[in-house]
Amino acid sequence: MTEKRRTPLLLVLGLSALSGALLFLSDYPVHAWPLQLIALCPFLLALERWCRSYRAAALAGLALGLAYTLPLLKVLEFPLLMGLPLGLYLSLLWILIALAGRRVLAWPSPLGPLAVGAVAVIVEWVDFNLVPVWGTAQCFARVWTAAPKAAQIVSLAGVTGLVFVL
Q1: CB–CB of 17/63 below 8 Å?
Q2: CA-CA distances (angstroms) from residue 81 to 4, 84, 87?
Q3: Which residues contact 87 (CB under 8 A, 6 or more apart)?
Q4: How many other C-beta atoms can be found within 10 angstroms of the C-beta atom of residue 111?
Q5: pLDDT in tens, the chain (166 residues)
């Protein structure tokens, strides 16, 4: 019985870490920007289908955040005193997105998926305006600068356009 309960959590963590790895690969130094189009799919699928609790959602956000930020911080060669707080801070943003995302994904389609996009935009807005460290949407938009035509939705609609992309 215990093994059955662990499997969904391990699946949620694995899929979330996969999303974080895809986000890293889409960013500096690899710049595989098309991965941005699918990077969050494993994470959102895990939240919707197998995430059984808010604790699991928080762990999923943490797994995504760490899988994205730890390799990035290593590549950027940040000093430990600067890199560790930044990695934890960015992971906290993903935890917030995961917690709110789990809640709104229960809404009927298309409201649930659109609400997750809205949650990401709200978390980004709060991050950028209240504690401007290094925002999620800036990370998305910076990656898209390698493909300017793909980034037109951001230039036309701003950060809110990410809701429709999601």
Answers
A1: yes
A2: 40, 6, 11
A3: 65, 66, 69, 70, 73
A4: 13
A5: 455 566 799 999 999 999 999 999 998 888 898 998 899 999 999 999 999 899 999 999 999 999 999 998 888 887 888 888 888 988 999 999 999 999 999 899 889 988 998 998 888 888 777 766 554 545 555 556 666 676 676 667 766 665 566 5
- pTM for this model (two decimals): 0.78
Question: Are 127 and 93 contacting, i.e. CB atoms less than 8 angstroms apart?
Answer: yes
Q: How many CA atoms lie within 13 A of 42 on its CB side?
A: 20
- Nearest C-alpha neighbor of 81 from the set 91, 73, 72, 90: 73
Q: Is 53 exposed, middle or buried (0-12, 13-18, 19+ CB in 10 A)?
A: exposed
The Cα-based distances of 149 to 96, 109, 144 in angstroms read 30, 29, 8
Task: Please name the amino acid found at residue 95.
Answer: I
H helical segments located in 27-160 = 41-49, 54-76, 80-104, 111-130, 136-144, 152-157
